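input
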Amino acid sequence: MSTATEIPVIYRYIDGDVVAILPTVETNQNRIMTYLYVGQHGEACPSWVIRGRLAKPEEYKALHQELCARYEPDKLVVRKRINWDSWRNRNQ
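output
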């Protein structure tokens, strides 16, 4: 369970890219925040972010370091799953 100060991040390997999924960051309705090297922040459909597989630590290490430069590093918490209840409640 995440606290208000935590920012859960799930790293997945999708279509040849490592994608950071930030499910509690506010977005437009029915979208989920993502972060990639190319394009950086963006919004995606939930059906897209569950594709692929979990990224391995050595695959997401550099992307995690980049996210730590944008967010407070001690608030980023790597998770393996999206808490869909937190995602649904993020804009409330």
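quick obs: The mean pLDDT is 85.
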